[in-house]
Amino acid sequence: MFKSVLFWKIATLLGLILLMMIPKEMLLNVINERSGYRESVIDKVSDSTSRAQKILGPLIVVPYSEWVETEVDGKKQGQRVSRHRYLLPEVMTITGAPNVEVRQLGIYKAQVYQGELYFHGQFESSSLNDLDRKGIIIGTPSLVLALSDSRGIQQISPLSLGSSKINFEPGAFLGRSGQGVHAPLTLAQVQQGKFNIDFKLTLTGTNSLSVIPVGRSSELTLQSNWPHPNFVGEFLPLQRKVDENGFRAHWSSNWLANSMNIHFASDSVNFNFDQLPAFTTSLIEPVDHYQLTERAIKYAILFIGLTFFSFFLFESLTSLRVHPIQYLLVGAALVLFYLMLLAFSEHLGFTLAYLIASLSCSLLIAVYLSAVLGGWLRGALFAGGLLLLYGVLFGLLQSEDNALLLGASLLFIILAAVMLLTRRLDWYQVADPQRFTVPKNTESTEIEAKAKEMAIDAAPAGGGSQDSFRLWK
């Protein structure tokens, strides 16, 4: 087996494929590095404006203290305990128009949105009736609006409650979620039964906008100029319309669906602000060329393996030989495709970069193989097959749902082509060392000259048999 030409050639090709995985891993590191640069730019923009916004409220916080007596060692002891009662809206309606602006630092971009949000809430104070008893001292209630990053508050109108106009002040009184604003109310305003509140907030943020549906019935309507929204989170919009001019979406939920009132049932609320379910829309670039390039590189071993196997098959079916150095040069051109794709996609977008990189590398390989394989037609055929593979790869990258189907179909077609082309090939003859040894007795002077040249090249340094085989001619 170890004197078989076929064995050593296959082993050499496998070694060459493994060798080409080294620059592939280096490219993956470059992608991670460039992606990290992009994320740092987004962080810088967020630091100078505000980060992704998550809104909780409006809701009313009623502080009170209660005299509590406990018995210790048969003696009664009392102390005043401070608590908060949370009054959630019966109806919460928010409408807004966050328009997106693209901020650019160098070659990297970040999306910043800014717009007005109109809040309307309807409250009912019957849940406060149990506080009207002996030992209870009620403090000053406040209407609270909490945000994940209060730096994004550009302007907020006074709170409208009946005929009253109340200015907002800093602070949210919600434990861990201290960021936000509050409007101080009077106890009479809160205990008037049903009442409505209205105010307007001009808000700035990056990446995403989320609203927690705290109302018994909550609705959110957003309209924006951003044509690439990504609706994520626990609730999808019931209605949405997206076109090149932007999007419009409408969300709706209630306590039966989200059990939001359970989080505020206790007078000592302890919840994680970031974990509360919300209406969420992402306002970022939908196509991440770094992720697409990384996915494309994962198919590099398939491209290199198919190309090298095509050369091996060509050698087996013809008398022409391809040297390992020529294999490596073609493999280097295949790896260069991914580097060009990464570089151009940062400036031109992924689709145009893919087109430029695939055409450039295919043309380079076509020109090189036309000399290696002895004809323009052969080089063009190999380049055409390579372009076909690039086209299939682009389809795989653009359609995740059909990636498995396309990949399986491609492999089936390749295997069928190989089986048809080699169905009459005598692999024992291909593996025979004598295949490359020219007979000693011949009447042709040209063949004799070639036989002498092969004998000189094949002989070991210290002499040896002329029957020693060569891996590549």
Automatic annotation (TrEMBL):
UniProt KW Transmembrane keyword: yes
One Pfam entry name: CreD
Transmembrane segment boundaries: 296-314, 326-344, 350-369, 376-397, 403-421
Classification via InterPro entries: Uncharacterised_IM_CreD (IPR010364)
Keyword annotations of the record: Membrane, Transmembrane, Transmembrane helix
Protein name listed in UniProt: Cell envelope integrity protein CreD
Organism: Yersinia alsatica
